Amino acid sequence: MSGQNLLRLSGIALLVGSPVYIISDVLNIVFNSQASAPPPPLAAIFGLIGIMFLIIGMPGILVRQATKAGTLGLIGWIVFFCSALLGAGLFVGLAVFFQLIPQAAQDGAPPASFFALIITLAATQLVGGILLGIATIRARIFSSWIGWLLIVSSLVSAAAFPLEGIVNTVVTTGADLLLIAALGWSGYSLIQTSEVPAQEAVSATQTASA
């Protein structure tokens, strides 16, 4: 499979994963009666599906701007990719293992390992998003707005961490919307990039035939 086809598949994965992930946020807002409670199983399942597609598509972002983003872009992408993997692990826990815990235990305080996962997820998303956003702006391969969206979404997500209740839900959802906008836009750009060489090849063939 050619590199252009891989970029196209990465772009498609990002475009598919973005709306699916947002559906998870919408379901959490609609069906979660307690703002401080974990998302309902259906929301966690959609979140897991969405983030898995995003994970599949994220390597295309690295490959597309690897020569221009440099070491900063590589470090930022690795840290940001780790945050996505941690997010997938969190959704697996919420969608599967959390449902197996008795209701009485669910109402109690979450274990320390859960808080450690949340803190690590927030830290990696903050650091990775800022570094990858800066590298994206400098590389000028994607639109600079994608880089700014990555930076702002990471800052907003970190700001939501100490908040509680409905305020946390609203701010976190806003951060997710900004992040998904950046990843979806990146996916569209990857698809557009993969189509250019194919169009050039067709034009060259037509010229040669003439």
Automatic annotation (TrEMBL):
TM region positions: 12-31, 43-62, 74-101, 113-134, 141-160, 166-185
Alphabetical keyword list: Membrane, Transmembrane, Transmembrane helix
Presence of the UniProt keyword Mitochondrion in the record: no
Name of the featured protein: DUF4386 family protein
Organism in which the protein naturally occurs: Ktedonobacter robiniae
